[in-house]
Design a protein that fits this description.
globular, Transmembrane protein
Length: about 170
Amino acid sequence: MVSRIAFFASIAFSIVAWSMVGTRYIWPALRHRSRAEALRPLLALHGFRFLGMAFLVPGVVSPDLPAAFAHPAAYGDLVAAALAVLALSLLPRAPGVVIAWVFNVWGLADLVNAFYQAARAGLVPGQLGAAYFLPTLGVPLLLVTHVLAFRVLLQARSECVAGEDRYLAHT
């Protein structure tokens, strides 16, 4: 019971800490950029979501880690990473923005699904082994950056078009 409390407290504190970092440092650095320029660092970060494949590696995680959690979490992260890299490669063109939307919806749904599958499968924090830091440190960062990406994607179109025109003029 103590390990579950410590696990969820770690996630909660990490969400608070990353939210503070996002609010004070990341968003101010992104808010005046064009849509494409603001999305680039967020998508680049999510390009590392292939790290979720660690949930499939015995020795990194316990062999007792429920497959009902491990498989969807690992492959969902891999798809999210591929979508992030694809969107990044297509920006600032319109298909890149469309793929960024697809990535952001998929990626956030994947994280929510992983929490649901962990609870449903009765995951015990010790089963995560060395991958313990993915849900306690990495996932809260990913959640915060998904919120920021939605904020960027939802910015008024006129603000974004002017910024993207400036970007295209310099390339």
